[in-house]
């Protein structure tokens, strides 16, 4: 068998546990993760689910990223992506310094067109391209907003901060993602836009979902829905409202509350019936397809992997759906199939996730944890499987 990497998630959990002088039994009691599950995860025999990772991170009082090993610095360096992070961070840091006298911003429509191009590129999985272009555009838009303040310019800047969040979160720089959201909220407030305010709270809730802080995430969802209630009725408002319900459904699923998850999914489905496919509205990809793929995610979070795999195979994804969302769905389906024992089907979906959006899949936690689970379960590994592991960097 091709051996698991020395620093796989289970190994990191064991190292963190020993650093805190905890026995496996003590960590099991603190986290409420079954003892047998914990021992198998540490041995690399069983993959760790997002719920378990978050529970163990809380119990050991560390960040989830510390447990998962993100960001994956070796691979980022090999792809020359790590050098693109600092310029983004620097562009975020000068948000309140006013107009830069050395920058002459272009006309607002040209900036808006470039910002829209980056939003589209992120959803096409072109993370490196966006990361390279974003800092300069951020600095230009920051100067434009300060030099001639106005609603459209502040909202343009908020949109670019949202793109910074997208890049940072996809590459595993969660501290930078959180900072980007704070800047997005700052700019959206100056643009006085309730819909942007609701979208900000949706994205912020996702950060708490990742960290396993479900109660705080749910509070943010309620606040987001309340904020959207202040906006004028529109398709845009409905789309963001529906997306908030989808985020809340995954949150409820991960906290093992089936009833509340179903309630949010049903409400999102009702809204989607009215909006139709609204892929381009804030590029949230909201609509009936997104509701369908979120049902698969929720079932997986509820540990109903058989139903998740069956439901996922029946989802018809439009050809023009964003590659980033399509790749994420394949990763979720692969995870569900792994847990049902359909190892070949699971690996085929990992291949689809890579083919659809390779830059995203390479740094996707679900892809990596699923690959590790497949590697532990398979006794004979084809060359294509080993090649995939080399591509991931494991």
Structure, explained:
It is a single chain. The chain has 394 residues and is mainly alpha-helical. It has a domain at 1-69: lambda repressor-like DNA-binding domains (434 Repressor (Amino-terminal Domain), Orthogonal Bundle). Helices cover 73% and strands 0% of the residues. The chain is built from 22 helices and no strands. It has helices spanning 9-19, 24-31, 35-43, 50-60, 64-68, 73-78, 85-93, 108-123, 127-147, 151-171, 174-191, 194-210, 214-228, 235-254, 258-275, 288-301, 305-313, 323-340, 343-356, 358-362, 365-377, 383-392. α7 runs parallel beside α9, α14 packs antiparallel against α15 and α19 (343-356) runs antiparallel to α21. The longest helix is centred in the middle third of the chain and has 21 residues, at 127-147. Residues 1-5 have low confidence and may be disordered.
Provide tags for this entry.
394 residues, mainly alpha, 434 Repressor (Amino-terminal Domain), 22 helices, 0% strand, disordered N terminus
